[in-house]
Write a structure and sequence with these properties.
The complex is a heterodimer of chains A (72) and B (257).
Chain A: H1 2-29, H2 34-71
Chain B: H1 2-9, E1 25-27, E2 30-31, E3 34-35, E4 38-39, H2 40-59, H3 69-88, H4 97-113, H5 126-148, H6 166-210, H7 214-255
Antiparallel strand pairs in B: 1-4, 2-3
Helix pairs in contact in B: 2-3, 2-4, 3-4, 3-7, 4-7, 5-6, 5-7, 6-7
The chains are: A mainly alpha (72), B mainly alpha (257).
Chain lengths: 72, 257
Amino acid sequence: MGVAFRLVTELVAGVFVGAAIGWVLDSWLGTRPWFLLVFFFIGAAAGILNVYRAARQIAASTERDAGGDQQG
Amino acid sequence: MATENAEHGGGGFAIDPMHQFEIKTLFPMQFGNIDASFTNSSLFMVLAAAAVIGLMLTGINRRAMVPGRLQSIVELSYEFIANMLRDNVGTAGLRFFPFVFTLFTFILACNLLGMIPYSFTVTSHIIVTFALAFFIFIGVTILGFAVHGVGFMKFFVPHGVPVYLLPLVVPIEVVSYLTRPISLSVRLFANMMAGHTVLKVFAGFVIALGSFGIAPGIVPLVFMVGLTGLEVLVAALQAYVFAILTCIYLNDALHMH
């Protein structure tokens, strides 16, 4: 449960931060909705990247723990 | 809390599961335009810090060769965090032991104090967890620039990416970096708030179904016992996740990829 929840928050945070950056840039520059559109997709990509990295890190740490058990 | 609320609501079983998260001002304080009142949240932060300090001081008080129970708790938690830092950051990370240890024990104490009935869960408010995560984020970024200088910017440029892809990859990496405080804080806050809300909702079921007789009330009560155990697990697990992610961020800042 902890692992699944971690991956979900990574994905959602990516999209959320991307959209927030786009929205702020649009309000500053008055270019609505272009930055929002661009950064939404960049944020989604960043979220997926984060999920991939988190999953790899979790897999690496469980593998390391399993290896440690065999040695010990 | 539930009965008190039902009286206020007047309508039988009008139990508000969100009532437990309400901030109450205990001592009003005002600095200029800033409301810095001492609230129930502040009270439980002080209690958590006092509980940790008290446990540590009484634990190491006797310094026995064969540790007693309290001393074992202190020694185990020391080794737990020291190993976490060694595994995730390397020996260079042991410089940050006091920081990670304080963080872990404080969050753990806040989470566990929140499990006591009628208490307040500090970490169920996103502003608290966000403040913790945001200062970690700022600190780790400063650390990265202090260790690597401007070279820390290379952190956002992965190896082996063709130059024509950089305008796409670098913003993705930067946004990915900026999500760290959000995902770190939302995870802790959402886990604590969701868990405590579920507990309150099931407690409401016990009262509502219990009014039909003993047997229907027992069923949600049994669930409550299980959920409470699960919630203690979540309290410890989320403190651990917060600490280990801090270690990973420290590792990124110290060694980059």
